[in-house]
Amino acid sequence: MKNDYLQNPDETPQGVEEGEQKRDNIIEFGSVTVGEKSPVHCLNIIGQIEGHYVLPSNNKTTKYEHIIPLLVAVEESESIKGLLVILNTVGGDVEAGLAIAELIAGMEKPVVSLVLGGGHSIGVPLAVCADRSFIVPSATMTVHPVRMSGLVVGAIQTYSYFERMQDRIVKFVTNNSSVSESSFRKMLHNTAELATDIGTVLNGEEAVKSGLIDEIGSLSDAMRYLNHLIEKKEKEFSEKEKVKEEYSSKKS
Hints:
Layout: H1 2-6, H2 13-29, E1 31-33, E2 40-50, E3 61-63, H3 64-76, E4 82-92, H4 94-105, E5 111-119, H5 123-128, E6 132-135, E7 140-143, H6 156-175, H7 181-188, E8 200-203, H8 204-210, E9 215-216, H9 219-251
Parallel strand pairs: 2-3, 2-4, 4-5, 5-6, 6-9
Antiparallel strand pairs: 1-2, 7-8
């Protein structure tokens, strides 16, 4: 591949390295920085959120030990101005998913999320944690109570733990979206929707109508809004710097 690039006079060794780095980032982390003209970092959250336990190799996973340091790097990078989070996830580890969502919600840089395919289970907090959330009409979101696999002790403490974990998710979702707590809990405990489970499946329009997602939109809509937030942020920063300069000049 390198020889092919070097035969083209329009390509530079630096361009080759940057192209290969982007390719490696997509393969390893499902993310890539778009480029200098559009300094947006695109992060994919796909498949199942992998937490403290390694999932089988045939599962598509998003590993939280990859995502967390990547988000820190995006927040600290001077060249990256905004983050686009694209979701197509079935959910997964609750604490890992909630940790990623809290980290994204706490970023100063503009963040926009786009739900494609599905944003199920713990994918709901990951969808609403952005400054603005979008969903395509064909996508769905499944809202259901927390569940646990493996050994479960039949004691009152277990039920208390489940209740407290559910409260954490409910509080996060309601604080980062327009849905009310009563409406969200009603969706969680709906017994008329799923055949072998309790919960609610929402399509794109229903997710927006419920208040979980801000608006229906595609990639172009999400990018347009993210660029708007970036421009707004840079304008506010330049105005603050101007005020500082004026204050410094008067003081001197």
